[in-house]
Amino acid sequence: MLVFVIPLKSPQVSNSWERVTQSFERCIKSICNQISPDFHAIVVCHEQPKIEFNHPQITYITVDFPPPNETNPIARGDTDKGRKILKGLMYAHQFSPTHTMAVDADDCISKNLAAFIKQHPNSNGWFINKGYKYKEGSKYIYIKRKKFYSMCGTSNIIRYDLNFLPENAEYNRGYGYYKYYIDHGKVRDVLENKAKPIEPLPFPGAVYIVETGENLFYGSMKLNFNIFDRKSLTQSVKDEFGLYTL
If you ran DSSP here, which 8-state letter would residue 153 be given? Predict the structure, then answer.
């Protein structure tokens, strides 16, 4: 089974909680659009978003640790994301997953992931080398032909034991404690150095969505949108990734 872990930012630090909620609803619909039923989604949040979409394979976990704030350097945004991912990974144990995948709450994923993972239960895992970039509201989508995993947090599918979870997780630590769960671009190298290499996913696995107003690390100004990588946003892409305009 593939378990998705979705860390959701707090309304206290959102530029628009309404927009965060809309983006999350699209994300969770995309996740639950898997062609295989062999998956579960764990959403880790300070406050459960009010959405109309429900699915029996979604679990919400609310946390009580403080949200990010300027006066507490331990509770910075990426640390908050890391501790939420760790919380979800620890909770995932009860579903006996073969693999887990952290998904940013405003991205969309391929409906084929769970079915593919089910065919390879013993694999170390995969990184998404090829994926899509999408500017919110555009009629175009851009292909990222390589190193998608370096820019987007929705990019690594890891065999559960290779999460290297602590026996007793702590949630009041600084950035370094959660670094492995946050630094998505370095997971491939970490596992390579441990002689547990992961492979490139053999198909585009996710859509990285920018200009949401809530991106933690990248806005569109930091990304390259080459016209030669541009293609029309077709119905087949929309259907595979559950992508629709907010």
Answer: S
Query: Model-level pTM?
Result: 0.93
**Helices 175-182 and 77-92: crossing angle, nearest 10°?**
70
**Confidence grade of residue 164 (pLDDT, cut at 50, 70, 90):** very high
Positive/negative CA dihedral, 153, 86, 9, 54:
positive
Token reading at 42: 């764990």
Between CA 28 and CA 104 the distance in angstroms is 10
Full 3-state SS string of 91-131:
HHHHHCCCEEEECCCCCEECCCHHHHHHCCCCCCEEECCCE
Distance in angstroms between the alpha carbons of the first and the last residue of the chain: 30
Per-residue pLDDT for 221 more than 50?
no
Query: Could you tell me the two tokens for 83?
Result: 């501790």
Paired tokens of 183: 């630094």
Residue type (1 letter), 60: Y
81 lies in some domain:
yes
Based on the structure, what is the number of domains in the chain? 1
User: Is residue 166 a part of any domain in this protein?
Assistant: yes
How many CA atoms lie within 13 Å of 37's alpha carbon, on the beta-carbon side?
3
How do residues 110-144 score in pLDDT, each as one tens digit?
999 999 999 999 999 999 999 999 998 899 999 99
Distances (CA, A) of 217 to 21, 86, 150, 153: 19, 19, 12, 10
Name the nearest CA neighbour of 108 among 6, 35, 15. Answer: 6
Give me the domain span that covers residue 89. Answer: 2-241
Instruction: Say if 246 falls within a structural domain.
Output: no
